[in-house]
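Appendix B. One record, verbatim.
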Amino acid sequence: MSDGHTTFNRRMVLASVVLGLPAFGAFGYAAQTGRINILTPVLPESGDLAPIRGVTLDGHPVPGLTRAAFDGGVTLLNVWASWCPDCRIEHPVLLELSKRTDIRLFGLAADDTEANASGFLREHGNPYRRLSLDTGRVYQSALRHRGIPQTYVFRASGEYVSQITGALTPELVAARLMPAIEKASLPA
């Protein structure tokens, strides 16, 4: 009797794995791409954050993030930190992206200090049109943020389109970011 019971248990475990893993993977893919709204990043309803003092762009102080600032154009939100090695790797790519006129590049310093973030940008250049430190995790919570660096793409309406986890490289920009920007430029 125990052989039959053991065989039944093994078959149940095997069936659970064979059927469960693809289902879990499909669910994860659907959630990541926005086909299921449970994990889709959103902007916070009241997401006005103070600017990081001392950071300028073209000689003018950089304003902080506001929810309203995401309306009116395709926006990239780059979540970064001055201590993050991958953020340092992607910084030259962000400086190049900031020269584009068809997008707005906003920055959100996470798990950092104002002094360290502003010092890094003064030393290496500031690519961001808007910049804040998310000390209360307002944006990170709404975005269901995981990991640094991460870049989010939003339509002119503030609707989420895509995200890229990890350091942006020229290859990643060409393969994933440019198609997401193109998609964000189209009507929803």
